[in-house]
Design goal:
- The chain is of the alpha/beta class.
- It is built from 33 helices and 25 strands.
- Strand 16 (428-429) and strand 17 form a beta hairpin.
- Helix 1 packs across helix 4 (105-114).
- The two termini are 47 Å apart.
- It binds alpha-D-glucopyranosyl-2-carboxylic acid amide.
- Alpha-D-glucopyranosyl-2-carboxylic acid amide binds next to helix 6.
- Alpha-D-glucopyranosyl-2-carboxylic acid amide (GLG) is lined by residues 134-136, 139, 288-289, 374-375, 452, 481, 671-675, 693.
- This is Alpha-1,4 glucan phosphorylase.
- The modification N6-(pyridoxal phosphate)lysine is found at residue 679.
Length: 830
């Protein structure tokens, strides 16, 4: 039986708490009970939504004992807990994962069948909780999965956005955003605890006072407040009985807040005030890597961080806990700069509320935090204006000033006379306006700082935070990202999972290095045939879905060439587009005969931030090119372009297992890591990629023969920048590039309207900030090598198998082990 044995604690009911029997009969009994007594309907009258909710609650029952026990163990034990602080969790659908964790897939399927229900329809009923933008949020979801599977105590803290990442639709090829009302039909996966509300203050001013020991103290007199209501989610480990908790906070207006205005007789204003407070958790900001510095976003950040710290200190720790021991009980991992306001918040709790001396509080604080930086783009490093921060969080601004003053004193002592250095390292930037550099605050206030892939960690030390890494080199480390094999292989690619398990046993699911044992099978023709059959079946599954979902009819036998990720110039979707147009131009101009072209189906998936104008123009251009090429008889069945709308985790789980070629084509030095790249390699796609992010490590592991490298290296990019990059030179000197761009500029893909492609074209030819033209030829050459390799199916499949066999390193379980070794158990900083 899966699950621990209760009870472990006096808090739990005496006698074992039995989950329903893990049999088809036991499952049906529990399901019908949930349907009748939970949902209040008879099977014969139930809707698909009733059935989905009852099924979800049934699976929950199997996890409940483990959840209660894990919680009790965490509270009563003295193990260090990881408090993962993340503004985003891109969870994906929960039902499949819960069935997988409990090993109930087959039982549930048969039980539903006997009830006359197709479980696939119930799975499809679930709207995924899209509480994240992309890589950063999905990484958080993979990490909490791995920690539960490894039985590491973890509480994930975040925000319960009422609306997650917008739903993307296309109208006439243009992106239109629709609100994501993922809660509209109710979520069976969350457990609200309104009675555990936490009050969060904002605004107001600070005052000095003298305590009874004659010490001068500061107190914050806030101007307004809101309540945080926790919603708990189960985070089940893979068949190990551990169920950790994800605690997402929802904002609610405080009684006091309402009444004040209500008493003044203005009912409408009182109601508006309520909506104002509840706005805080209303919607996820849809910007990936480019924060807009909006006031509401800072409110969101402080809101969830204040709730989480309070929750841990007041509710998770025993009442009499000695806070000097805090670093022995918790490490708060800061997922990017979004939760960094937690550092001054902990100082405020220790100094203002608990009465610690500054120095002791600071020593405790900086041992309780570790900071992960997920970017190299300067515009992605959050900066808050002093005016805004001081208005919203006046006491925190004072604390930040104090931290800064003491820190700069240290720096001046270490580097006497080097005032420029002190100025460079100040948390407070003076230009263009006085503002707080959150990455600096994070670095100063954390025991460890890590990047997310080797190359980025190096560049983080050398280019983003060079003064800090020089000052405290031991603080900096790397942990290369990973992805959970449970969701991204086992769940997403059942056929491949079965093939692997039949070949090497099932240990790989929790020990992904075991995939190495597949290596010898790359030379086994029988195995290659089975592997290729899995890929083909996955393609057909995807095509069936895209036919129903998007009305796309795609050829069955073409190379599936996939570029899925957020739309951003640095990720260079335009480079992919130039490649497609160049192939097409070759055919229609008669340069290449159609029977010389390796059939390819290109798949794009990408959301653009709603305010990112050029990104939306690029989406329009991709759709225009797709429509033109798909309608052109001259390339029919050979070149096809699909851009299904609303790329999300659910769609990723269908696309990735079907892919032959994984496009990871960012400009070197821009993509911190990438995690899609890992998912593709683990599902047997070959990568065409630059030497960027974790591509570098993928290539090292799978070997140059099994990876298509192209483009400038990061130092070459830097050198070109230094020389002065002029894209027009590339345009003028490369005939193929010229013909490709001219075809786009001519209006060929936009019904003759040149204006419709002008913004993208002009940007490429005149600015090209991410050097698409400079890498164009190298990319085309690499694509020619891809074609040659694909023409030899045995060689291709062999490479694909080796990609799977050699990518075990990219399990998020390994990432978690690295965090444990290098960060969470690391000796405290002095
Ligand atoms: C990022 C980066 C990605 C990275 C991901 C997770 O852009 O390269 O893989 O986080 O670390 N800001 C992000 O979404």
């Amino acid at each position: 039986r899966v699950g621990p044995t209760l009870p472990v604690s006096s808090e739990l009911a005496a006698g074992p708490v039995e989950p329903p029997a893990s049999t088809v009969e036991g499952f049906i009994e529990a399901f019908l009970r949930e349907l009748n007594y939970g949902q209040g309907v008879l099977l014969s009258r139930s809707t698909i939504n009733d059935q989905y909710l009852a099924l979800a609650r049934t699976v929950r029952e199997y996890l409940m004992a483990g959840w209660l026990e894990t919680g009790a163990l965490r509270r009563e034990g003295d193990r260090k807990i990881v408090g993962y602080l993340s503004a985003e969790y891109l969870l994906g659908r929960q039902l499949g994962n819960a069935l997988l964790a409990t090993n109930l897939q087959d039982i549930a399927e048969e039980a539903m069948r006997r009830c006359g229900i197709d479980i696939a329809a119930l799975r499809a009923q679930e709207i995924e909780p899209g509480l994240g933008n992309g890589g950063l949020g999905r990484l958080a979801a993979c990490f909490v999965d791995s920690l539960a599977t490894m039985d590491v105590p973890c509480i994930g803290y975040g925000i319960r956005y009422e609306y997650g990442i917008f739903r993307q639709t296309f109208e006439n090829g243009r992106q239109v955003e629709v609100p994501d009302s993922w809660l509209a039909l109710g979520s069976p996966w969350e457990f609200p605890h309104p009675e555990r509300q936490v009050r969060v203050d904002f605004g107001g001013h600070t005052e000095k006072w003298t305590d009874d020991q004659g010490r001068e103290r500061t107190r914050w007199v806030p101007g307004w407040n809101v309540l945080g209501i926790p919603y708990h989610h189960m985070v089940p480990g893979f068949r190990n009985g551990t169920v950790n908790t994800l605690r997402l906070w929802s904002a609610k207006a405080t009684q006091a807040f309402d009444l004040q205005i209500f008493n003044s007789g203005d009912y409408a204003t009182a109601v508006r005030a309520q909506t104002f407070a509840e706005n805080i958790s209303k919607v996820l900001y849809p910007e990936d890597s480019t924060p807009q510095g909006k006031e509401l976003r800072l409110q969101q950040q402080y809101f969830f961080v204040a709730c989480s710290l309070h929750d841990f200190i007041a509710n998770t720790l025993p009442k009499d806990f000695d806070l000097r021991q805090l670093p022995e009980r918790i490490i708060f991992q800061l997922n990017d700069t979004h939760p960094v306001i937690a550092i001054p918040e902990l100082m405020r709790i220790l100094v203002d509320i608990k009465g610690f001396d500054w120095d002791e509080a600071w020593d405790i604080t900086r041992r309780c935090f570790a900071y992960t930086c997920h970017t190299l783009l300067p515009e992605a490093l959050e900066v808050w204006s002093v005016e805004l921060l001081g208005r919203l969080l006046p006491r925190h601004l004072e604390i930040i000033y104090q931290i800064n003053e003491l820190f700069l004193e240290e720096v001046r002592q270490a580097f006497p006379g080097d005032e420029m250095r002190a100025r460079r390292m100040s948390i407070i930037a003076e230009h263009p306006e006085r503002s707080v550099r959150m990455a600096y605050l994070a670095t100063i206030g954390s025991a460890k700082v890590n990047g997310v892939a080797e190359l980025q960690s190096q560049l983080l030390r050398d280019k983003v935070l060079p003064d800090f890494s020089e000052y405290e080199p031991a603080k900096f480390t790397n942990v290369t990202n990973g992805v959970t094999p449970r969701r991204f292989i086992y769940l997403a690619n059942r056929r491949l999972s079965n093939l692997i398990t039949d070949t090497i046993g099932s240990e790989w699911v929790t020990d992904l290095d075991r995939l190495r044992e597949l290596e010898p099978y790359a030379d086994d023709a029988g195995f290659r045939a089975e592997f290729a059959a899995v890929k083909q079946a996955n393609k057909e599954r995807l095509f069936r879905l895209l036919s129903v979902r998007d009305g796309l009819e795609l050829p069955q036998h073409a190379m599936l060439d996939v570029l899925v990720k957020r739309l951003h110039e640095y990720k260079r979707q335009t480079l992919k587009l130039l490649h497609i147009v160049s192939l097409y131009e070759d055919v229609i101009s008669g340069t290449v005969a159609i029977d010389q072209v390796v059939p390819r189906t290109f798949i794009f998936g990408a959301k653009a931030a709603p305010g990112y104008h050029l990104a939306k123009e690029i989406i329009f251009l991709i759709n225009s090119v797709a429509a033109t090429i798909n309608a052109d008889e001259r390339v029919k069945g050979v070149l096809s372009v699909a851009f299904p709308a609303n790329y999300n985790v659910t769609l990723a789980e269908k696309i990735i297992p079907a892919a032959d070629l994984s496009e990871q084509i960012s400009l070197a030095g821009k993509e911190a890591s990438g995690t899609g790249n890992m998912k593709f390699a683990l599902n047997g796609a070959l990568t065409i990629g630059t030497d960027d992010g974790a591509n570098v490590e993928i290539r090292q592991l799978v070997g140059d023969d099994n990876f298509f490298l192209f483009g400038m290296t990061e130092p070459e990019v830097e050198a070109l920048h230094a020389r002065g990059y002029n894209p027009a030179e590339y345009y003028e000197s490369n005939d193929k590039l010229q013909r490709t761009i001219n075809l786009i500029a001519s209006g060929h893909f936009t019904d003759g309207d040149r204006a419709l492609s002008a913004q993208v074209v002009d940007n490429l030819v005149t600015q090209d900030p991410f050097m698409v033209l400079a890498d164009f030829q190298s990319y085309l050459d690499a694509q020619a090598r891809v074609d040659a390799a694909y023409r030899d199916p045995e060689r291709w499949t062999r490479s694909a198998i080796l990609n799977v066999a050699r990518s075990g390193f990219f399990s998020s379980d390994r990432s978690m082990r690295d965090y444990l070794d290098r960060i969470w158990l690391s000796s405290p900083v002095e």
